[in-house]
Amino acid sequence: AVFWDGAKDFELLLVDQSGNVFFISGVQESIQEKVITVSGEGMIHSPDFPHTYPRNSMLVWRLVAANSMRIQLTFDERFGLEDPEDGICKYDYVEIEDPTEKTIQGRWCGSQSAPISQKSRGNQIIVRFISDEYFSSEPGFCIHYSAIPEVEPEVPAVLPPSLQGVEELSEAVAVLSTVEDVMKYLEPERWQLDMDELYKPTWHVLGKSFLLNKKARADLNQLREEVRLYSCTPRNFSVSLREELKRTDVIFWPSCLLVKRCGGNCACCSHRCFDCQCMPAKVTKKYHEVLLLRHRSGTRGLQKSITDVALEHHEECSCVCKDDLD
Q1: Which of 26, 30, 56, 318 has the most crowded CB, counting CB atoms within 10 A?
Q2: 197 pLDDT exceeds 60?
Q3: Distance of CA 83 to CAs 167, 272, 324, Å?
């Protein structure tokens, strides 16, 4: 017997006649998902593109490139799916999922201009097309894909620590996570000796320890981690859906939801400026199901429905100099 749990990276459970159980894992083509190896250029599109696509469709493509490659997706200018409701694509839509980070990069519908180009963060990307049982549209969508090499960021030449100025060296060590990392940065060849020397007892240290009856040395890594946890980081914020979505004509329940938003201070901002602000460095949209209530037009009573709302979540934060923002 073969069982499939619907996951993208599949896991097969095989049971033979004797009752022995075997698991097989990997990337494999399934009934719901078509795996395409991307080595050059190609395209995927809604059925019958550029004509009306069929109803009740669910197509999933997983594009897989070599480990050192990334995948570029470019939408054809001819784009048209069923219109959204309340600004949300919930009936017919095409969406792109990043399996590396398990996030939705975008979901599109309607007949506005074609979506902008997308690029995978890893060597895989998933394209999913859904149409419901009601209205179809045309021309659907067409996506051109190609494999592009992963571009390694250029590493600027850095002076050895002994030749760096105070400000430059302060910025360099500020981003390091542990005291061991600091020692490795300062003296890569002899950092372990430096660590031993750093905590080697001397007469004045022994004198303080003796007088204050303190035998344990300070955990510098823990002190640094505490600063990181309580500085500029994503943290839980409650947001009012009516204010967040600018929808004062309806009622949501729950009326508020928790989202991740950047918060905290930037007292240890590494930028050379007087005013640093905690800003989002990576933002994703996540969909939440809520109860939507609205008054029926011309009649008494409320219309009740479960709807998806898209809210921004801050995945990563960083301190940004206010002068750069201006």
Answers
A1: 318
A2: yes
A3: 54, 48, 39
